[in-house]
Amino acid sequence: MHDNLDTEGLDYLQWSLFDSPDEKGSGYRFMEREPVYILDRIVKKTRRNFNILLGYTTPKYANKFGLSTKDSHRIGRAVRLKILNPKKRMDLVRLLVLEGVTRIAIAKDLVYYDTDDLKERGLFLW
Question: What's this model's pTM, rounded to 2 decimal places?
Answer without folding.
Answer: 0.95
